[in-house]
Structures are given as structure tokens and as C-alpha cells.
Design a protein that fits this description.
The complex is a heterodimer of chains A (241) and B (247). Chain A contains 5 helices and 10 strands. By secondary structure, chain A is α+β, with helices and mostly antiparallel strands. In chain A, helix 1 packs antiparallel against helix 4. Chain B folds into 2 domains: 68 residues, Winged helix-like DNA-binding domain superfamily/Winged helix DNA-binding domain (Arc Repressor Mutant, subunit A, Orthogonal Bundle); 151 residues, GntR ligand-binding domain-like (Four Helix Bundle (Hemerythrin (Met), subunit A)). Chain B is 73% helix and 3% strand. The chains are: A alpha+beta (241), B mainly alpha (247). Chain A: It comes from Nocardioides panacisoli.
Chain lengths: 241, 247
Amino acid sequence: MTTATNVSADTAAVLGALRDLATSVFGDVDRIAAATLEQLDPAGRRLSTSLRAIDEVTTRIVEQQGQPITGAGFVAAVGYLDDTRWWLEWFARGEGAKADRLASETNPQAPGFYDYEFLPWYVVPRDTGRRHVTGPYVDYLCTDDYTLTFTMPVVVDKTFAGVAGADVKVDTAETLLMPPLRAAGQRLAVVNAHGRIVASNSGRHVCGDLLADVDVPAAWQHGHPALHRLDDLPLAVADLG
Amino acid sequence: MAIQFYGRATAAVFAPLESTSRSSRIARRLTDAIALGLLPDAQQLPGEMDLAAQFGVSTVTIREALSMLRHEGLIETRRGRGGGSFVRVPADGASSLARRRLGEVSLVELRDLGDVYTAIAGQAAALAARRADDEDVAQLRRAAAQLAEAGEPDARRRADAQFHIQVTVAAQSARLYQEEVHLQAEFGTLLWLAFGDDASHGEMVRSCTAVVDAIEARDAHAARATAEQRVTDATARLIDYRLDQEL
């Protein structure tokens, strides 16, 4: 892992904006996770209906003015609840910034069924026990937007109970990252651990492309002087030279 | 407002929307959703006020659209407590809806839909070859395997739709994804009249596997060519099917 040696002021400013975004979003995700934990009594029955108790905190987060989140909630581990195999207690910002509940389709044969068992925002926190940022990706199961999803595992008595999470549109992340990117005197790109570009200050490095200049997955493992990682998250600032 | 040079497409965009054309377009959208299986039998539609808000039209327009669907026997409206409008899929399944629609579409319109779908499918595959990461490729392989395993025509149709949606997702484009979904509703339902048998299913699985191979190899040219060929072949097959129906 590269450490903070030789980080230019420009790179540090972009990393700072990225950290501010992650801190703000994970702060809200943490509140949803805490509210969820209160409802999941390890001794009692595990019911999807008891998750209604997190609706107030979640809708308040989604409806709050001036924050970057467009959707948030809790997604139960497959098979964790007693009354349904799959469950999403999830709200998305709709008309007039009001939080709309996502209808959970729990019948796998139905057209609106939401199979999340193989999706990275669920799989990575389950398998690593750590928080994760998925994307940029086209969230075709929920909002149809180009999205970043911030998730953290919710664990009850050493059992994985699901993930708490929040969605941020890539547009919004771009708005927050552009001021330091524009101010930079060098070519920089914010990338994920696959090398997918979130935002950059170069027309040759557009959002969604995989960075060709640096082999990011390899650099992630072994470190690279041009790659500056953000703490434990799968996000980094790449120096394009 | 003067509209010059840009031809009829632009003029059509700015043309005033008559309430009848709006209501018939909403009826067409809901019919497509029923034909695609997105609105299953007995599903309750949202209330008139909610539908009006969702489509951005007046409740009068919604009432007209619902009346058309009722006339076609595609919804049933019950009054009173627990009442509302409920979907009624025709007894011979959604394919009879598609067959009815195919009869109304000219061959030149089919060709044109095929042209647009070729552009969308080809570009999505080419961009996916450039942008897909390992996870995207794994999702595509899973979707292709599900298509290969699907036995019933309906399961095959759903798996095929899912595969092509995954290609636009791997392309990282929300717009291409939306175009794919619209084309599946408008054109995919028709294409499926001519597909679903074992021979065409085998071809489809081979074509999808070839697209994933090209995407994994980062070969944008091969990905584009294979995806375009699939739509070109499918369109030709549908036009032949339509011609046979007229005999």
C-alpha cells in the first residue's frame, strides 16, 4: 500500500474532498446501521416488520437538504429473517425530495424481483466484514442512475445480518470533486480499485472508463507512486503525469 | 416558434400533444408492459391520481387510457372497497398481444426498429469491451449461463432480456441501458414471436457467449460485430415470420 509520502498539495486536496464525501455518507450509513442493530434482537424472532422502526431515521437522512445521498436503508442478509428470504428496507429520494419506499418484491419468480445475493455492495461487506464503496455502476435494479453505493456490514452476535447503505449519484460526487480537480495544476483522476474513473480533470479520462495509464488492480496490491489510496476504501487518486 | 431544417422528427417533438394521442400512448405503454410480463395477471394498477402523477398527465387522460385497456379486455375495474383496476392477461398469454401488434406494424417500421436496435446493441457491446471490469465479466457469464439453462420460452425471453441489460450495464451507460429497456418493450416483445424454439435458442446462447468472450478479450470490434449480427439476423427472422403470417 502506498503511504502519504510525496503527495502533492493538489492530490491532497482531491483526497480531502473524497474523504469529506465518504465521511459524510458513512456517518449517515452508520446511524442506519445502529438503528437496525437495535431492532435485531438475537434471541427474538427476526421479522421484516420490525425493521419499520428504522424508517424514521432513514427517511430523515434521505429527505435532508444539502446532503449527497439519494437513497438509503438496510438490506437483510439472504435467509436471515424468519418471515421472508429477501428484504430491503430502502428509501429513495423522489418528487419534491420526499423519500419513497422501495417496494420489496420477495417472490423470486416475479418480474420486479431484486436478487442482490451476487452484487458487490452486498457481497463485499459480507465477505470482508468491512465497509465498501461500489461503483460507479448503472443501478439498474433500483434507480436506473449512474451510482456509487456506500455499504457497511451489520453483524448481530457474530452473524452477518445484512448491510446498511446509501446511494450517491455519480453526478453529485462529480460536483463535490470538481473544485479541487479544476484547481489542480496536474492531471488527476479519482478511481476505484478496478481503475474505473469516478471523475478527472482530463477529457481523455472520462468517468466510467478504466484507467489505461496505471494497472490499478496490480498497483492496489503492491503500491505504485502514482496511486494515492483513500484510507481503507476502494477509492484512490491517480496521478496521470 | 419557427422550426426549420431539422425535419419532421423535430417538428414532431414540438407538436402539441392531443389528449387522445397521449392517452393512446399511455395505453400502448401499459399494453407493452403487460406483453413483457412486467405487469402480471391480477396485478392492481396504481390509482388514477398516482398514474396521472407518474405519467405527468391529467386524470382525464388516464381515464381515457384505462378505458381503452378495458375495451381491449386487458384490465378489469372493480368498484368499492378493495376496488381498482386489475390486469387481465389474455388466456392465450402475452404472445397474442404481441401478435396483434405485429399485424399493425409495417415492414419498413420493423426494419427501422432493427436499425436502431443494431446501433444500440453494437455500441453497448463495444463500450463494454472497453470498460468492463472482472466483476462485470463475471455477471455477464452468469447471465449467459442462465440463458443457456433456461428451458421454457418465457424463461428464455427473460434471461435473454437480462443478458442484454447486463451488456449496457457493463458499458457504464445509464442512457444506453434506458434505450435497451425501451427497445425491449417496443421491439423485443415482437422479436420473441419468432424465437424461443430450441434451434434459435442454441444460436442465441452461442451469440451471447461470443459477445462475452470478445468483451473479456477487450476486443471492441468483435464485440460490436457479434452484437450487431445478432440483431440483424433477429430482425430478418421476424420479418420472415411476419411475411409467413400473411400467407
